[in-house]
Amino acid sequence: MRASALLCLALSAGCYYELEPLALVLDQGVPDLALDAAFDLAGDAPRCANGAAPLHGPELSDPPLDRWSAEALQPITVTTPTTTVVLDTARTIAGAGALRLDTLNGAAGLLYPGTRDAHLDLSPYLYVSFSATADDASAANDPGWKGAQPHLLVVTSPDDYYEYVPADVRLPRSPGAFQGITVPLAGGFGWSRNRFGEPDLARVRYLALTFETWGAGFTVWIDDLRVGPGDLVDCP
User: Fold this and answer.
1) Domain ranges, residue 128
2) What's this model's pTM, rounded to 2 decimal places?
3) What confidence score (pLDDT) does residue 85 get?
């Protein structure tokens, strides 16, 4: 999916929002970012510096799943682009289970958090890592994934974000063993970092993994998703 293309998020049944350029939209009602020192990386266990209980972490792909959302993206290629995310306990390599994204559309994304209102400071960290496998084997999807997949978005605002694109396809067409994927936050090592506006790794509202095939309908499993090195936790 090109960064200059229109993107449509299926936020509710029959309701789509088109954006230009490619940026998974923030809620326009969210006030200006005002980030405190949210993280304390010292100590034996992840915890919030303000004393509050973490909302999630450090393995972001583990429960609870209420912080995640799955969205159908533009182009909408079917009448009902149903897109869901569930915890798959049968296909997993770490923790309680893997995220399983199922879509009837040709393009879809996983968003963390789905509310797009996190206060994430990724500036002390070097990478986002996860393991993935996928099912894009339908003959109707030939020749398969549309360009190098997946993409990672690290979003500060609708106009300010980084888009990370691999040099080649990192997803299989038929589900098999999970493959480890590491995305350097500075780019490089097989990943291009495209900058739009003035993104700030210290002011991240959400992360998004996006996927696109030439046809319609696929499944992606994501497991052991972390920000490292160290233990990032999602603090209120």
Assistant:
1) 7-26+56-228
2) 0.80
3) 96
